[in-house]
Fold this protein.
Amino acid sequence: MVNQLIYNVLNVFTASPGDLEDEKNIVREVADRINKALGSIIGWHIEVLSSKEVLPGAGRPQDKINKDVLNKCDIFIGLLWKRWGSRTGKYSSGFEEEFEYVRQIRAIKASPEIWLCFKEVAPDLVADAGPHLKKVLGFKKNQINSKEVFFKEFSDTEEWKDKVYDWLLKYVLRLHQQIQNNNQIAPTEETALPQANETLSVPALPQTAEHEKSVSAQFTELINSVTQAINTNTFDVGQRESKALDDFSIGRLCLLAKAWMSKRYPSELLTVHEINLLYQHKEQLETTPQEWILLFRTIIHDSYEIRPGWYWFQNINIEELLFYLGVINSETEVRRRAFKILESAQICLTKDNSKRSELRKLILTDESAVVRQAGLTYLGNTGTMEDLRITESALCDEDSSVRSEAAFARLLIIARHDPNRALLDIIDNQTTFSPQIFSEIEKQSNNLEKDVILKGIQHHNSQIRVFAIKHLAKLDILSENQLFDLLKDESIDVKKICYQTLANKGIEINLLEFNEVFKNSKGLLSGDLNIIEKITVAVYRGLTPEKLLQQIDWLSNNSTIAYQVLAQEHFPMFSEVVRSDLENNFEELKQKSIEKMYGKYEKDYVDGFLVGLNNTEIDEFVKNKFIVAALSGLAMHGNTDDIYWGRRYILESKTLPDVRLEAVKIIERLGDNSDTNTLISVIKDSYGELQELAARASLKLSPGIDGAASALLETGDRILVKLAIEALMNEDKLKVSKLLEPMLNNENQFLRVQVLVYFIRNCSTDELEQILSRYIKKPQYFYNVIYWLDRILYAPSPIKEMFKLEWL
């Protein structure tokens, strides 16, 4: 990629027809500017090449340009506007020949870099393109279709100057970082890791004479083993493995080779199998600094959670090492992952001004938009108000995703430290609504000013209005008149909050108007499907028993809600009615309602209505709603005899989940161990809330290691397994461990995770180490179990606390 004879020279060649001479001169001016500013500091010089460097001689001029100039360039900048150029004898223009020549070179040796740029052409010229412009446009279309070269566009010389300065500066800084990284650990410097620069303190691997002696002995033994394998002809490529090399020697040899390789190819990492093989012999391993860094980079790079290795980094300064990797490492994914871990562990590096300076440089100049974005995400979640300058500078980034992340990070920092300013920014600048931003503002709710929140009520964005109204309602600031006035809002979510608040305050609501509002509203589906019923229940709870009794009618929309409130809130006076209605299957209540209807309307009208009612499923639907209401009262207040109703309806109502749900509640409260099998059958043929409630009931009635927990574990279902593990938390640890430890080899990953949750919550460090030791000796095991135990046991603080929080 870089000229190997003068490694600190970056050769740049600009190819273009004659209509872009100003732009070519700008490249030279920018190079001179960067050389003067940074050349003596970083030891790099940008050399802009041209055909003027070609010596005179016989032969086709373009051949000499290709050989003498293009062969040694590191970056080829191709510029096109309106002209295509003149034929060369082989190609239709000098630009085309130069472009094709560097393409062929790059296919062989992966260099030079090709930066292709088009200056914007006025639409009227495109509409009436001449022969030159047609060729330019055709060439551009070919690049779009082939997707071989990612090109950029610019409008004028000023924009071009800004772009080429930014590109060349970032590129030469990246090269400088790569060289720094490759030269950081020389083969003879194994006593400490070097300084990356004057301000960056790199954590060093502690070295002692005893450690160096151990490493030397390990290498000596390794060399002897390999030599013996070769000399005895047991090192046979055709064999499955060498008889002379044990597993540790093979893993040790891989580590050494990969460490040497990573000096030349910084992206080199240990594979999953290599690091797991080494981990089986983790106590034996003694490393050189370069091997140490390779191990760390490998576990940081691992996004699939299958590469263990924290064992070797128990006592390091994790903040310094992650910072080192995030800023200096040449591998994009390692830098990104370092920021991700820092973010998750809530480690704020920018409290140190020198680190803030390094982070600013990285976020604004890193070659990878992904890393720049990760750095901004990290700042947004951990940064202070002083870090706003970094996020604001990144608002000018060339990548739209980075600009977007910069805007978000800026507002997130403000929301965390000054919620009023953040909310005003959202309201006044019409910033896009973000749940995370509002969550941060909500955490600072005690510091929000009333006038700022009230301003949000008038905002055109309904989500902002909902946030403001919900917050004001929680603070009990909105008056009755304000709430009724807000009911005129077009947002269905605003209406829901207002009605709920009115009901909670005990303010009378016109239920006819309320039902009319939500009758045909699709918005009802967003947020709460049962909002009408919930608000109606809240309203009915404010009524006297006498008024509730007046509402009970077989044909009334809210009759079952009135019945439910009576059964739940006024059970002592209503209990006999509940039991009687269940006995006669609500026929008596139905007949009384029909008689009341005959007293109100003409007989023919009522007869016709009843014919229609009996010929539909409405009658059965209404009856089941009343059964649910009655059972809900028994579930809350019934006596031991009422277990009959739970057992009856859990068997009779297999197609009615609402009825069975209340029946399960009765059994959970009043049943015994004999109900366990019935509950297990419900668990197996149901889902959702009913299944979860039946599982909880079974665990309550049949507790312990020999109870329902074992049956729930066998299902492998996420919710059921989690409930079973929770139920076993306080049981005899020895017995539970014997039951659960074999499950670490179960194919169901979620089951393995929940088993580990149990061990992490209940076992000491020594006990976890014993589990790890036993597990890793099994003939077959899951890599992610080793990974999870390793990071919980050995990750240094505060990373360990972050990992534990994820589990617990």
User: Anything to note?
Assistant: Residues 1-7, 183-206, 523-529 have pLDDT under 50 and may be disordered. The longest strand covers residues 9-15.
